[in-house]
Design a protein that fits this description.
alpha+beta, DNA-binding, 20% strand, 8 strands, homodimer, 248 residues, 2 domains, Arc Repressor Mutant, subunit A, globular, two-stranded antiparallel sheet, Beta-Lactamase
DNA sequence: GGTGGGGATTTCATATTATGAAAATTCAGA
DNA sequence: TCTGAATTTTCATAATATGAAATCCCCACC
């Protein structure tokens, strides 16, 4: 592993919505590195356009990030092809919809759309949650044994009252998901939400991602839940058709 | 400048819409570096989530890029605040609208929206054009002498029949733009388009960016051009109010 | 207008670390 | 199973990132 590159990535990741503008000193303190080292790295990143200098001696993320983002294939495809279907789902049932992928034992949200009039949920594109404690994560685990293996190795820990922390219990649940083609998360996460997820599959039936619809427990418990489940499943299938050529 | 970081940035930039999936060999060839070096860098970037491994031995851009992009303050603000106003402009006049910023002698497009039924234009978020040959670029030059200085140092070169290649002529044009508060580009670029641009200013009247409306020459030449100019100017002013706290 | 202080830069010797040739491995296709 | 073309790993060496300290720069305060 090339240290300088790793550090550069860490520096870029320091710039968040909470701290979009940072000075050299702040960066160095955050990452516990020498100000000189930080300065060298930041200067290089500025030269490349990844960071840019504020009018003061502060820095912020630069244009290069926008450019790179435009080239993320998923972003392109997910936006162009999946978005209309996701919007339709939101339109019908309110709540929030995510598309999530598996990475290093967690689910990463690669798309998020929320209805305007729904309980806010603390997720954003790029954020992560434990796979075993989310509806989309459980779908991903159910459809790919390698994901499960990786998750087990990292261990299961308590997240909320209903989190599955027993490996055997998790395996049972995954079998159920395989049989039924969808998963449910009822307050297993820290957000007090009810989620329904279904798999997005490639042409060769490998799992690419999962789509989920999330809403307050009260809302989802009501009579039209089975209709929601059907809709999430069919949306997942439609998106699978659109994105199915992708193999991760 | 830290070489490893610079090279890592170059590697990331290799992944484009044309070549979204690359092998080590291809990357090494593109950048004329040793395959081993490329491999070390790519491995590190994979570890950081900036790149990800395809199912084959190929690589593509990873989730980290999505995450970083979400934190680009401009992106956030531009989308949330400027987008409705931009959409309104498109709705009224068709064509394409860009928001552009100045960087290293060129304009960088940080937002692009096109009407569905208009002549396509070869720009995208993150792409660049010479400042002196675009309507938005000329606005940026007119409102910031430092930008002009930088542009002159890099020299003016022929881009299309109407490109301004004489420095004195350019300065005259910029004075006109200052007086009138907008700029026009009539086939000065390589795209055969007619553009109208106006400045987006901060509260302290420094130029942040420029907004332009672009369309086929034939369309823009007609009688309601003065109305278009007024609309572009007033949209720019509204966006200035929304984004005015930003100081670059 | 001068002064002090808290940054950001720059410098430079040193130790760390990236480099690249070559060997080992993997994988797909014959 | 074999072959060839890729990737991945290894490792000695050269290159370069590192960080303490010195300098510079810009504000805020006198």
């Amino acid at each position: 592993m090339i240290g300088a590159v790793k550090k550069a990535c860490q520096i870029i990741s320091c710039f968040t919505n909470e701290t979009p503008i940072l000075g050299i000193g702040e960066i160095a303190a955050k990452l516990d590195m020498n100000v000189s080292t930080a300065h060298h790295l930041v200067s290089t990143l500025c030269n490349e356009g990844v960071l840019m200098k504020d009018n003061q001696k502060k820095y912020r993320l630069g244009w290069k990030v926008l450019e790179w983002n435009n080239h993320v294939m998923f972003q392109q495809d997910v936006y162009d092809k999946a978005m209309p279907l996701v919007k339709e789902l939101i339109h019908r049932f309110k709540g929030s919809v995510h598309i999530a992928m598996f990475d290093k034992g967690t689910v990463v949200f690669v798309l998020k759309v929320s209805s305007k009039d729904t309980t806010p949920i603390h997720t954003y594109v790029g954020s992560r949650k434990p796979a075993y404690a989310t509806s989309s994560g459980k779908v991903l685990l159910a459809y790919n044994p390698a994901y499960l293996q990786e998750t087990i190795e990292r261990g299961l820990s308590y997240q909320a009252p209903n989190t599955i922390t027993d490996i055997e219990q998790l395996k049972e649940e995954l079998k159920w998901i395989q049989r039924n083609g969808y998963s449910i998360s009822n307050n297993e996460n820290s957000d007090g939400m009810y989620g329904i997820a279904a798999p997005i599959l490639s042409y060769s039936k490998k799992i690419i991602a999962a789509i989920n619809l999330v809403g307050p427990v009260s809302y989802m418990q009501d009579s039209h839940r089975s209709m929601i489940i059907q809709s999430v499943k069919s949306t997942a299938q439609l998106i699978s058709k659109e994105l199915g050529y992708i193999e991760v």
